[in-house]
Amino acid sequence: HVQLVESGGGLVQPGGSLKLSCAVSGYTYCYYDMNWYRQAPGKEREFVSGIDKDSMITYADSVKGRFTISQDKAKTTMYLQMNSLQPEDTAMYFCNADPRSDSRWNACRTQNYWGQGTQVTVS
């Protein structure tokens, strides 16, 4: 069972920075895309950034140039460095481990894992 625990959220002024962490444990045999999502009140959960199973990095247009995703070599921790934060970045930020792109195993295609979220408030 994959376990994801986010930390590092908090209150920051516009223009400030925060670094989020996601501690990962319990990987199965699947290859995982590791992603950050966020959800603001009244809005749908949206993709922020991700590192796919081939180490390719993607950013949402809204955070490109401001946020940086990374992970340690053991892939036990994923980070999201957030700079130049704006009020519209205020949201609950979720860590996601997504094995659905692992075409080797049908079982992987049915799994998706989420952390509990960490609140980021820019005000």
In short:
With 123 residues, this protein is an all-beta fold. It is built from no helices and eleven strands. Strand 7 and strand 8 form a beta hairpin.
Textual characterization of the structure:
Strands 2, 4, 5, 6, 9, 10 and 11 form a 7-stranded mixed beta sheet that branches. This protein has a 4-stranded antiparallel beta sheet with strand order 1-3-8-7, with no helix packed on it. It is 0% helix and 47% strand. A hairpin with a 5-residue loop joins β5 (46-51) and β6. By secondary structure, the protein is an all-beta fold. The protein contains no helices and 11 strands.
List key phrases describing it.
123 residues, seven-stranded mixed sheet, mainly beta, four-stranded antiparallel sheet
Mean pLDDT: 96
Helix content: under 10%
Alpha-carbon Rg, integer: 14 Å
Coarse structural class: mainly beta
**Main beta sheet: strand number and arrangement?**
7 strands, mixed
Number of helices: 0
Topology:
Blueprint: E1 3-7, E2 10-12, E3 18-25, E4 33-39, E5 46-51, E6 57-59, E7 67-71, E8 77-82, E9 91-98, E10 113-114, E11 118-122
Parallel strand pairs: 2-11
Antiparallel strand pairs: 1-3, 3-8, 4-5, 4-9, 5-6, 7-8, 9-10, 9-11
